[in-house]
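Supplementary Methods. Inverse-folding protocol.

Structures were first reduced to a discrete structure-token string of length 104. This string, shown here, constituted the complete conditioning input.
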């Protein structure tokens, strides 16, 4: 019985030590969203399930501008159209989404 208890104790300690070690994580020097193309791809992937494939495709071409480590991504309105476009703000460093919206 004592052997079983010792064995269980060793297993619990081994499992606990594995969890305390951080998992490997590669982070590029230029961040997870290094360029305009990547920022747009992320924004479109977020917008499409929210606003619909047809709505988002109709807002091409998309623009992305990097300011202070944040990508500001937006769609475009066709000439003569009224209304708003999809917008997203995405952190260059870690790809976290700060804001998603669509104008009226």
């Amino acid at each position: 019985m004592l052997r079983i208890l010792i064995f269980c104790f060793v297993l619990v300690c081994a499992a606990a030590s594995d969890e305390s070690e951080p998992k490997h994580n590669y982070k590029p020097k230029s961040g997870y969203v290094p360029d305009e193309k990547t920022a747009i791809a992320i924004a479109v992937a977020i917008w499409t399930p929210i606003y619909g494939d047809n709505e988002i495709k109709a807002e091409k071409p998309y623009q992305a501008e990097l300011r202070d480590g944040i990508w500001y991504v937006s769609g475009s309105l066709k000439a003569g159209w009224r209304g708003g476009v999809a917008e997203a703000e995405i952190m260059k460093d870690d790809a976290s989404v700060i804001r998603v919206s669509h104008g009226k």
